Here is the input.
Amino acid sequence: MARQLDGATRDALVERVRFYRDLGLTEFYRRPVDASVLAAELEPQALQAAAVEPEAESSNSQPNIFGEEPAIPARKSISAPPEIAAAVSAGDRAAALQMIRDEIGECTRCALHKGRNKIVFADGDPNARLMFVGEGPGADEDAQGLPFVGRAGQLLNNMIAAMGLTREQVYIANVVKCRPPGNRTPEPDEANTCTPFLFRQIDVVRPQVLVALGATAATYLLGHRQPLAGLRGRVHAFRGMQLIVTYHPAFLLRDPRQKKEAWADLQMAMKELGLKKAASSS
Ligand code: SF4
Here is the structure.
């Protein structure tokens, strides 16, 4: 029999799951219910603790949060990125990007087309030295057809300004170009269907530094799943470019204490770009 949750508990669980998603925990599994403990689990406190309690993390060890169990079906594989396209000259990049946009057209290649209002292709300078990649459009982006224009976008703008740049000087895109229903994480088949366009955009812009915003962007750029904690704090080689992983601005809105960590990531990007510190992040 399905367990009924009251509205407050359900809302708390939804918020908790979103929080874990931003930490890199993107899949959750239900184990068979043991009848002998069901009554105890249904106690409100026990239920709350058992639902999504995280494993304790220490600075010295990484929990095996992606460890497979025999009863869990294998994940869909994430396709490897295509070969690097021939370099496009600076003067031709805007036109090359427009060709990619034209090819996308009124795309129905994955299920996300059903709920979208506008395809969110990208925003910014085709010759940018710095590119940000997020997860997917939210409600504001879906309405305007531009990436990062809501509250998270305002924070991203502030982060860019703190680096001494303007939004017009960088290039911004997402893993998927259509809004997932309810802002859920894109399914692997959706992301794998859409990311070839993202890789082509990256190959045209060829930024010196790419910043992956959140676990989903890092997963589909690097081609494998790994907790965000294991990806941050270093520079990854990526298709002849440098890739830095940091938190998604939406996560930073929910947990502002992590802004300091995000700022440290952005300072790594600034060092690679030879930028001087313009302002402290806030
Ligand atoms: Fe097409 Fe990408 Fe939109 Fe899916 S998310 S419908 S692949 S543009």
Notes: The first helix runs from residue 7 to 23. Residues 104, 107-110, 112-113, 119, 176-178, 190, 193-194 surround iron/sulfur cluster (CB under 6 Å). Confidence is low (pLDDT under 50) at residues 37-75. The chain has eleven helices and six strands.
